[in-house]
Write a structure and sequence with these properties.
By secondary structure, the chain is an alpha/beta fold. It has two domains: 144 residues, Aspartate Aminotransferase, domain 1, CATH 3.90.1150; 242 residues, Type I PLP-dependent aspartate aminotransferase-like (Major domain) (Aspartate Aminotransferase, domain 2, 3-Layer(aba) Sandwich). It is built from 13 helices and twelve strands. The strands form three sheets. A seven-stranded mixed beta sheet has the order 2-8-7-6-5-3-4, with helices on both faces. A three-stranded antiparallel beta sheet has the order 9-10-12. It has a two-stranded parallel sheet with strand order 1-11. Helix 7 links the parallel strand 6 and strand 7. The protein is globular. It binds pyridoxal-5'-phosphate (PLP). The site of pyridoxal-5'-phosphate has 16 residues, from helix 3.
């Protein structure tokens, strides 16, 4: 059975063109980009072309502001720990949000646990959006970093980065944003957003797994985490993943070319999906702001169901979706994002994330709706609380 894949926030299919661009670097083009011979120099050129493409993708002023990493998690770690390491004589206060992905959240929690930083989480609204006015009073003189994601991986909400950046700039505080879920789903212009550091991961926008970037604005003071060779101008030791870097750059090119068309298509499919579900499934509702969100993500709550049982039942019927982020799925804990938005535990436990992508079709959505409607119905029939509620209503 071909499954209907509605889990693009976990990972996306690789564009064919990206695969073809990678192929030579997985086969004949074996050169190490640090080697002086021709094979090495061809690899070097491929990497530098990719760097220029990635700079254009995010609107960076200069390709030298792009550092290649093994993905989003490494880029996030590098930003947080790299800034902390040069800021200790200024203070230890770090401002973040309670909705961050584990790649930021766990790093900051661990650093706070080791008393390396004082972590302050800004409040978030019930629709999953931060307000810069709430952040302003938190920015004291000993604040060394602000870290707020661009788009949330679970509910898709988009944060007011340029407003937060303005405040950070006034106080000369470095501003990092995890942009992993924004790429390919909204325009990314690092200068308009005002960020000093920004992370991306290729496999979230049609590129390969295991490749990403950290954008470091020129003049930002930080240190590198991975020492070794002098690759990436000493920012990150280690032989470059040429194929991954080339595939990521090709995916970025396609995502950039198709951005407007993809946004319109995804919005349309998502709205069709949500309208059908809301009209056909009683006691269902959407989580997260309806305006300030990326176009592919729909987080929905179906009261009187259990999300883990729903994911398994839907999978058996050929629909792939998730409860929470892929990195924390399977954990019995309800989503920290939904809890931060004030959802009670039982509603957080009854919520699912559907994330669409460039391969999603109208037909997928139609079939997924039919299967979801039947599955919610069946799950509720096994829940005594639902039965009791139905009896009450009669
Ligand atoms: N940040 C966000 C918001 C994500 O959604 C993810 C992956 O789900 C990551 C970081 C981690 O990226 P990677 O899988 O490339 O390590």
């Amino acid at each position: 059975m071909q499954s209907i894949y509605l889990d693009h926030n976990a990972s996306t299919p690789l564009y064919n063109e990206a695969f073809e661009a990678m192929r030579p670097y997985l086969t004949m083009e074996i050169g190490n980009a640090s080697s002086l011979h021709q094979a090495g120099q061809r690899a070097r050129k491929a990497i530098e072309d990719a760097r220029a493409r990635m700079a254009s993708f995010i609107g960076a002023d200069d390709p030298s502001e792009i550092i290649f990493t093994s993905g989003g998690t490494e880029a996030d770690n590098m930003a947080l720990k790299g800034i902390w390491a040069v800021s200790q004589n200024k203070g230890k206060r770090v401002i973040s949000s309670p909705m961050e992905h584990a790649a930021v959240r766990q790093v900051l929690r661990q650093m706070a646990g080791e008393h390396l930083i004082d972590l302050v989480l800004a409040p978030v609204s019930s629709s999953g959006v931060l307000n810069a006015n709430d952040i302003q009073p938190l920015l004291t003189d000993d604040t060394i970093l602000v870290s707020v994601m661009a788009a949330n991986n679970e509910v898709g909400t988009v944060q007011p980065l340029s407003d937060i950046a303005r405040l950070c700039r006034q106080k000369q505080i470095p501003f990092f944003s995890d942009g992993v879920q924004a790429a390919g789903k909204m325009p990314i212009r690092v200068n308009d957003m005002g960020v000093d550091l920004f992370s991306l991961s290729a496999h979230k926008f049609g590129g390969p797994k295991g490749a990403g970037i950290l954008y470091i604005r020129k003049g930002t003071r930080m240190v590198s985490l991975i020492q070794g060779g002098r690759q990436e101008k000493n920012w990150r030791g280690g032989t470059e993943n040429v194929a991954g870097i080339v595939g990521m750059a090709k995916a970025a090119e396609i995502a950039q070319q198709n951005l407007e068309r993809d946004i319109a298509k995804l919005k349309n499919l998502r709205d069709t999906f949500e309208n059908e579900i809301l009209s056909k499934i009683p006691q269902s509702r959407r989580n997260g702001d309806l305006k300030k969100r990326i176009p592919n993500t729909s987080n929905m709550c179906f009261e009187f169901t259990d999300s883990s049982a729903m994911v398994a039942a839907l999978d058996l019927q050929g629909v792939a979706c998730s409860n929470g982020s892929a990195c924390t799925a399977g954990s019995p804990e309800p989503s920290h994002v939904l809890l931060a938005m004030g959802l009670p535990q039982e509603l957080a436990h009854a919520s699912l994330r559907f994330s669409l992508g460039h391969t999603t079709t109208q037909d997928d959505i139609k079939k997924a709706c039919r299967i979801l409607i039947e599955t919610v119905q069946k799950q509720r029939e096994t829940n005594p609380l639902w039965e009791e509620r139905q009896r009450h209503l009669k």
